Amino acid sequence: MVLLSGGLDSSTCLAMAREQGFVCHALTVTYGQRHQVELDAARRVAAALGATEHKEIAVDLGLFGGSALTDDIEVPKGRSEADISHGIPVTYVPARNTVFLSLALAWAEALDASDIFIGVNALDYSGYPDCRPEFIMAFENLANLATAMATEQGRRIRVHAPLIRMSKAQIIQAGLALGLDYGLTHSCYDPLGDGRPCGACDSCLLRAKGFAEAGITDPLWGP
Amino acid sequence: MVLLSGGLDSSTCLAMAREQGFVCHALTVTYGQRHQVELDAARRVAAALGATEHKEIAVDLGLFGGSALTDDIEVPKGRSEADISHGIPVTYVPARNTVFLSLALAWAEALDASDIFIGVNALDYSGYPDCRPEFIMAFENLANLATAMATEQGRRIRVHAPLIRMSKAQIIQAGLALGLDYGLTHSCYDPLGDGRPCGACDSCLLRAKGFAEAGITDPLWGP
Question: How far is the alpha carbon of A144 from chain B, nearest alpha carbon, in Å?
């Protein structure tokens, strides 16, 4: 079970799960976000990486408010690396990864699958509480108490977060080594009307920095 | 933040939260279940108990399959008390309470609310892993690692499960003492075409047993 947004991180995570020999079921959660173009990217990536199955589930977290990604709050542009790396930005979606992992767990249990992959990264967004290793460990602990699969059948559920301590450049290099075409992925929080990335939101800036540090041209921006 | 299905347990839980002085926001999760009449009950109960706000959020857990409550699997009828109390029935929905609590946490964080109420009960359904005290404690632990409210502002999130060790009769007596009209609630897994309870599913049987033990006539079935 691989959570797949169609962004750079989750796409690399799917490539890694496949490399480890897992039969991959990809789950995309649509949560009322404004970057609908990510969903097209998720479909392209799932197909390109040979996911056995790709499901999309809708849950309108915008109903609760509290985030620039679901509300009419402006997405910040052109922030410095220091600003991006510290504190919780307005693009934080309350309890998002908890909701994502719980939905992945629901499908995993229905499939009798005991391995869940999530492409969270603790370095880029040190301010996001639900991207830290202790959060992932707490969810794994919960999953093993929450499901009949674990409590009745003694299956041990594992939550894999292979990118959690990697830099963006390392993630990109790992994905390229696995043959991932980053031209299929999409990372922007606030794409232009024609679907192209804005180039100035936190997500675009982190992506650009990652490609620069890896010494590689981002195929989204072309040579 | 009170999870409210419109059933006997969650309605009593809402009455208890109000009694404790909380300003109550009620959340009903519609998850593709067949018992749509429960939703009407949730609206009636939220209004009758003076919830400040009542939201409904849809998430189609039927997409994943694996339960008689979301699939075309037959709901078992006329089971013995021993059968109901042991093992995991086909009405179990994979990871349901994990999904419910994660959605409650998302709204709670958006509202800056630190208390979440859920009407789970460990006695009636000893086979449901996500109704046990250790599950609730693990979710509370997760919530305090998952949210900016807890990690940045030092708010302690509490997950209250006041019914967890009560018998159905005790729950009914507690609700009546708080003025709850159980005629507004609805518990059946497989209601008749006109919305009346079937009287034979596990949920109807447990409800009937609870009223019988409390020595009270269920207003749903009339005097």
Answer: 9
Q: How many CB atoms lie within 10 A of CB B77?
A: 14
| CATH code of the region B2-214 | 3.40.50.620
Contacts of B129 in chain A (CB under 8 A): 145-148, 150-152
pLDDT 10s digits, B197-216: 999 988 899 999 999 999 99
Contact A200, A158 (CB under 8 A): no
Confirm whether pTM is higher than 0.95: no
Q: Point out the residue among A67, A110, A135 whose CB comes nearest to the CB of B94.
A: A110
| Whole-angstrom distance, CA of residue B205 vs CA of residue A27 | 37
Q: Which amino acid is at A84?
A: I
| CB-CB contact of A4 with A27 (8 Å) | yes
The DSSP code for A140 is H
Alpha helices, H only, A66-201: 81-85, 96-111, 133-146, 148-151, 168-177
Domain locations in chain A as residue ranges: 2-214
pLDDT per residue as tens digits for the range B112-141: 999 999 999 987 766 788 999 999 999 999
CB B143 within 8 Å of CB B157: yes
Per DSSP (E only), the strands in A35-126 are: 53-58, 115-117
- The verdict on B70 touching A (C-beta cutoff 8 Å) is no
